[in-house]
Structures are given as structure tokens and as C-alpha cells.
Design goal:
With 297 residues, this protein is an alpha/beta fold. It folds into 2 domains: 207 residues, Spore Coat Polysaccharide Biosynthesis Protein SpsA, Chain A (Alpha-Beta Complex); 59 residues. It contains 10 helices and 10 strands. Strands 1, 2, 3, 4, 5, 6, 7, 8, 9 and 10 form a 10-stranded mixed β-sheet that branches. Helix 7 packs antiparallel against helix 8 and helix 8 runs antiparallel to helix 9. The longest helix has 22 residues. It is globular, with a radius of gyration of 20 Å.
């Protein structure tokens, strides 16, 4: 059983940044100006070569004891930088965001959700995706939010954006983010937190904005597939009780979803191969059969 939270638990907002001078001020301001007294904003910068560190230092002076800078001298990569920031967080609750994201007023509604039960370990909310170049209208990040216990649904569906997540620090694994996953270690962290059976859920409302721009690592849907596969393999090895969920995710994340992206971009031959991989692994996967037929149209 995890220890109960104090009446006003300390919240750490964990921000990672790298060469984000155009966005970091808005990100820090949106975090530091949350309507909650017992709050720290920990910014771990990954050896930026632009003016990002200078901007962070100015906010430290503007918000003394509230803004905590970690200015790394060299670039260590997303996951190692995330762990540097995580090690500096002292809150009973920790929220996560990137240096180009924006928190909205009301984010601290998540605190009350945790206080309702000691076995609650991860909370999310809806996020608005907005496009810096105005090429598309804003839209919700996910179609549905989920609640439950254990890691099964998170492995299968990955229902939360990282900018929406707040966790109970007592439930964090000893090693933090897994450094064998250099880029896509956040989902693995959620799995590690939930694997013992803790409860996850969400609060109603949109309390963050995710900025789409040319520098997003998520712009290439195939870039992190190798690491996704590695994360699922680690999950299978470490948590055999979730073997069925891992198999489900392997078919969808590593075959079907890439096939959909390839088909949408007109790469029908490659899409066909992806859907065939999904069908070989799960012959009754009706959606994959339907998409396969589209490849011949």
C-alpha cells in the first residue's frame, strides 16, 4: 500500500527542453503560473546550443524557489535528460511536459483525483493538438480517455498523451525512465508504474496544448517503431502476466498502424506488406483484411 498524500501534496512539473528558444518561455510560464502554491517546475535542458538555457535562467530569477533549472552541459538524449530532471523532482506528484507544450489553467485538478484513494498512481486528461503553421484546425489528442487498474489497457491502447500525465512519485520504478529506450521511454514508464496493479484514470477537461511543428519527433510515424518493438519486448519479458496485451499491441503498433500510415501516404505496396504481417499474426483481424483490400484499389 502506498502512503497517503498530505493535505496539499507538493507537485513537480517536469519539463525537458532542447533548442526550444521559440517556445520554452511560454511552456515555463504556463507551468509556473498554475493556481497551486506547493509547486515546483523542474526544467532539464539537454545541452541546448541556442538561447534556451538563458531563457530558463531568467525564469529562475523571476520565480525563485518555484523554477528549478537543470542545465546540462552536453546533449545526452531524451531519456537520459528526462532522468536528470526526474531525479531533481521532489514532489509527491509529478506531471510531465515538453519544452514546446503549454499547460492550461485547471491542470491541478488532478491533485484531487489522487487524494481520493491511495492506490491511484496515474492520472491523465484531454490535450488539444494545435498546428503552429495553421495548416489544420485544432483537435483533441485522443478520442477517448480510459480508467482502470494495471497496465493491460495502457499496453493495448496507449490512451494518454505524455503532456496530460501526472503520477504518484512513490509508484515510480527505481530506475526511472528506461535508458535502453533512448527516445520513446515515456510509455514504458507508465507500464512500469501500473504493472503492480495500481489504478489509473482521468479528470474531465482539456488542460494542456500539444504544439505540432516541424521539429516534433512524432512527425515521422516510423521513426520510433524499433524502440516501440523493444519496449513491448521488455514488457513481455518483465511482466508475463500481460503477454496477451503485448501480442495485441505488437500486431497493431508494429504492423497495422504503420500500414494505415503508409496507405494514407499512397505507398500501397509497403502498406500491403504491413497488413499481411498483421494478418499472419492475427488471421481474424477484420480491419486488417479490409485495409488490405484497399491496397488493391
Amino acid at each position: 500500500m502506498l502512503p497517503p498524500l498530505p493535505p496539499e501534496p507538493k507537485v513537480s512539473i517536469h519539463i525537458i527542453s532542447y533548442n526550444q528558444e521559440a517556445y520554452i518561455a511560454e511552456a515555463i510560464r504556463s507551468a509556473a503560473e498554475q493556481d497551486y502554491d506547493n509547486l515546483e517546475v523542474v526544467i532539464s535542458d539537454d545541452g541546448s546550443t541556442d538561447h534556451t538555457p538563458d531563457i530558463i535562467s531568467k525564469f529562475e530569477k523571476r520565480y525563485p524557489r518555484r523554477v528549478v533549472p537543470i542545465l546540462n552541459a552536453t546533449n545526452r538524449g531524451i531519456t537520459r535528460n528526462s532522468n536528470a530532471g526526474l531525479a531533481a523532482c521532489t514532489g509527491e506528484l509529478i506531471a510531465f511536459m515538453g519544452g514546446d507544450d503549454i499547460l492550461l489553467p485547471g491542470k491541478m485538478a488532478q491533485v484531487a483525483w489522487f487524494q481520493e484513494a491511495p492506490h491511484r498512481v496515474l492520472c491523465a486528461h484531454q490535450v488539444e493538438v494545435f498546428y503552429e503553421d495553421g495548416s489544420r484546425p485544432s483537435h483533441p489528442l485522443t478520442r477517448r480517455l480510459m480508467a482502470g487498474s494495471g497496465a493491460d489497457a495502457v499496453i493495448r491502447h496507449q490512451p494518454f498523451g505524455a503532456t496530460s500525465v501526472m503520477v504518484r512519485s512513490a509508484a515510480l520504478p527505481a530506475g526511472g525512465f528506461r535508458e535502453e529506450l533512448p527516445m520513446v521511454s515515456d510509455i514504458m514508464l507508465w507500464i512500469d508504474i501500473l504493472a503492480a496493479g495500481g489504478e489509473f484514470g482521468f479528470v474531465d477537461g482539456t488542460f494542456a496544448r500539444y504544439r505540432k511543428h516541424r521539429g516534433n519527433i512524432t512527425n515521422d510515424p516510423f521513426r520510433g517503431l524499433g524502440e516501440v518493438g523493444r519496449a513491448l519486448e521488455l514488457t513481455r519479458m518483465d511482466y508475463p502476466q500481460y503477454a496477451d496485451a503485448v501480442r495485441y499491441a505488437q500486431v497493431r503498433r508494429l504492423a497495422y498502424d504503420p500500414g494505415v500510415a503508409l496507405l494514407a501516404s499512397g505507398r500501397k505496396r509497403e502498406a500491403r506488406q504491413a497488413f499481411l504481417r498483421a494478418i499472419r499474426q492475427e488471421p481474424t483481424f477484420v480491419k486488417a483484411w479490409a485495409r488490405l483490400l484497399q491496397c488493391y484499389g
